[in-house]
Amino acid sequence: MAASKPREKRVLTGVHFMLGNYAIVEGALAAGCNFFAGYPITPANEISERMSERMPAVGGAFVQGEDELCSIYALAGASLAGAKAMTATASAGYNYMQEGIEYAVATETPIVIVDVQRCRGENFATQADVMQMRWGAAGDYEMICIAPSSVQESFDFTVRAFNLAEEYRNPVVVMSETTIALMRERLVIPPEDQIAIVNRRYTKLSPDKYRPFAAPPNGVPEAAPLGKGYHTLYSINPHDEMGGIDWNPEEYDRLYKRITGKIRENRNKICTTQSFHLDDAELALIAYGSEARPALDAVEMARESGIKAGLLKLDVVWPLPEDQIKQVAKNVKKVLSVEMNIGKYAAEIERMCCGLCETARATKNKGLVHSPEEIYGTIKEVWR
Length: 384
Description:
By secondary structure, the protein is α/β, with parallel strands linked by helices. The protein has two domains: 14-194, Rossmann fold, CATH 3.40.50; 271-382, Rossmann fold. The chain has helices spanning 20-30, 45-57, 68-80, 91-96, 98-106, 130-135, 151-168, 178-182, 249-264, 267-270, 292-304, 322-331, 344-353, 372-382, and strands at residues 14-19, 35-38, 61-64, 85-90, 112-117, 144-146, 172-177, 184-189, 273-276, 283-288, 309-314, 316-318, 334-339, 358-363. The strands form three sheets. Strands 3-2-4-5-7-6-12 form a seven-stranded mixed β-sheet, with helices on both faces. A five-stranded mixed β-sheet has the order 9-11-10-13-14, with helices on both faces.
């Protein structure tokens, strides 16, 4: 009998020059991901391709589903069995996953979904999925969506996506984009013992005392280990604390207030932002994902011309970082939303700024990221 091949390192500590899609894979593995299911679609294919090599080599499982629906439900089953599970798709494929995402929300199943946004039918850059990621699935729920703007953040934010999914027992979306996914940049992967990992909380109660969906208001229920006598029904239907299907209006109301509250009431902990030149800014740009890069360049150009501009970069787009946006709006004369679509998220920013400052938009959806010059041109127009 041939000797078994030794497993590869799960965490590739060191300095790399790496593709964005590959950085997502390495972030997932560093976070403890041990199950991946996906269906081929550009421009996310490199994630599945690298996962098909790396996942079995570190002792995990890789499944190529026959479609996106199979993939998302495979994730849910694997996660409920105790796995840390991830899938990757692109805009059209994300549409097909909505029913499974609804199931994961209702059953409070932690999964990570990577959506590499692309223009409709073509592999050009866009941020047009921003509302689909938040509102695509049926029912009342809150989604956590993280928006990396670089290859380094693709790694870092994927680790964080797993941690948030485990902590809040909720699906988390990594909002990648064609540009970030297919670019190569410097990536530093720290030693394994320097990567913070969060694991779901398992109950210490015996099976006869365990209530699968019992939790304080806005709280997260403890999970149960598989194969230890905890027989839980994980149903998309309205259910009581035991998991039993129960169409009781008051019970239904209580359930969904908690499912949404566990995210909304912790949004200031979940929602992180980065500030650039905002201490004395009179004009604030707000951007996320790849658009934050030219936005910062445009801020530098504006400052060189005497305009006191700054940038609020949103690391987390959903839940809406309400307090952070309002705080900026209170301290500036005008907020400029920078976005690679027709202005979908800009409306949310303007809603937060209402009554606090003036607003303007730098938006386009032409399959290309804004150039710094384009954003700077808009700055000059709105600052007259």
